[in-house]
Amino acid sequence: MLLLPAVITHAEVPHVLSLFKQTLDKAAAAGNVDAAMLTVDGSALQRFDSSALAVLLECQRMARAKGRAFAVQSLPPRLSELARLYGVDGLLQSA
User: Torsions phi, psi of 34, nearest 5?
Assistant: First the structure.
């Protein structure tokens, strides 16, 4: 599971994607069956812009490229609203 940081704006994107890649690589290396579903937890996220959606969609793409299912949980309501506004809410499956 990847716990999103409190802030995701354009400046934090490379760092957050790097963390997710590390999480994904560790899960693959461990060969853990529980790692078939990789979940991103947004409960700590407090300040964000549309870059947060780009991060989530890229994390989903990376997980699927490794044959893993992907889900999000505990996204802030404002981020869920932003996803609906941009029409990508259906792409972000909730856990």
Answer: -65, -20
